[in-house]
Design brief:
The complex is a heterodimer.
Chain A lengths: L2 E6 L2 E6 L1 E3 L4 H13 L4 E5 L3 E4 L1 H16 L3 E5 L3 H9 L7 E3 L2 H8 L1
Parallel strand pairs in A: 2-4, 3-5, 4-6, 6-7
Antiparallel strand pairs in A: 1-2
Helix pairs in contact in A: 1-2
Chain B lengths: L3 H9 L12 H18 L3 E3 L4 E3 L11 H9 L6 H9 L2 H14 L6 E5 L3 E5 L6 H14 L7 H13 L2 H4 L2 H15 L3 H21 L4
Antiparallel strand pairs in B: 1-2, 3-4
Helix pairs in contact in B: 1-7, 2-4, 2-5, 2-7, 2-10, 4-10, 7-10
Classes of the chains: A alpha/beta, B mainly alpha.
Chain lengths: 111, 216
């Protein structure tokens, strides 16, 4: 899994590609934690290039969001494919994450 | 750190006399099965999605409560969903329960006492010796239920399992339960194995209800 990284204004953007599952959840978690340790307080995860997410991927997202919340930061998600949106809907994650249609809408809301 | 099966045992025992709370046997069986599967998921041995439960790493965990289930998942020639594995593992719930209780007795958390009922029937009680672990679990649960904070994955698991067993009726007063209901409903959805446990319990309850009140 490749993870794109960029800074857009005050927002740090991570864009995982392919699958987020047990094979790479730890490395994704490390990237999220590294961003938090760098002092990033606004994190956007762009799922536009993500095809699949498993429970292990959901757990990593949850842990990242929890740490960010504890440090007073914000997290948002954008560009969910229908299949990933379904996973988020069934697991109730849509009720805890701010989810936007695309990156532009997310950045506007977070700015 | 205690396994989820051990934490569930602490919550399923009456604090006063060490007997089991009156919950349906199948609920306890499904919850213990879910507890083992969730521990295997957090140990990176299995992973799940909406359709399947997949083996990630068949290497034993070294925990005798978990490894028999891991062996069965690893030996399976077909990929099944989480619900299949909840029901498969529930068949071994007595072993999981006894193993969890043995470990808690060995760790000095519980004591084992044998009683005789009508001089013939033997029953066992497990009074608490050291209540710290149970208090810690209850505090974690209440901390999640009484706040809007994003829960930790371990806390989600224990809330899923408690709700599947129906033991929130025992842990919370009716007023507390009414207040916490929406939060319980939100949190219990967050784990896909937890959802499979709940579906298995509901299906068995529905089958029993149909058997008791058949619709002709």
């Amino acid at each position: 899994m490749e993870i794109g990284e960029s800074k857009e204004g005050a927002v740090f953007v991570l864009a995982p590609t392919g699958r987020l599952d047990s094979a790479n959840a730890r490395s994704f978690e490390e990237r999220v934690l590294a961003a938090l340790e760098q002092g990033e307080s606004a994190l956007l995860i762009d799922f536009g290039n993500l095809d699949y997410i498993s429970s292990a991927g959901l757990r990593v997202l949850l842990m990242g969001a929890k740490r960010l919340q504890q440090s007073g930061g914000t997290i948002a998600l954008c560009t969910l494919s229908p299949s990933i949106r379904e996973v988020f809907e069934i697991s109730g994650f849509l009720t805890i994450f701010a989810v936007h249609d695309d990156r532009a809408a997310a950045l506007a809301a977070m700015g | 750190m205690l396994s989820f099966a051990e934490e569930m045992m602490l919550l399923l025992l009456d604090d006063q006399d060490g007997s089991f709370l009156p919950i349906p046997e199948w609920s306890m069986q499904c919850a213990l099965a879910g507890a083992v599967l969730m521990d295997l998921a957090l140990a990176d041995r299995i992973d799940t999605d909406l359709e399947s439960l997949m083996l990630v790493d068949g290497k034993p965990t070294g925990n005798p409560l978990l490894d028999p289930t891991l062996e069965r998942v690893a030996a399976s020639k077909e990929v099944h969903g989480a619900r299949y594995w909840v029901e498969n593992t529930a068949a071994y719930a007595d072993d999981i329960r006894d193993g969890a209780l043995d470990r808690l007795v060995e760790a000095g958390v519980l004591n084992r006492e044998e009683d005789r009922f009508l001089w013939v029937f033997r029953s066992r009680r497990y009074p608490t010796v050291d209540g710290r672990a149970e208090r810690e679990v209850k505090l974690r649960i209440m901390g999640v239920l009484l706040s809007d904070e994003i829960p930790d994955p371990r806390d989600i698991v224990i809330i899923c399992l408690c709700d599947s067993c129906g033991i929130f009726n025992e842990l919370l007063s009716p007023r507390e339960l009414e207040r916490a209901r929406a939060r319980i409903d939100q949190v219990r959805k967050m784990d896909l194995i937890g959802q499979a446990v709940a579906k298995s319990v509901w299906e068995i309850q529905a089958s029993l209800a149909m058997a008791a009140h058949p619709v002709y």
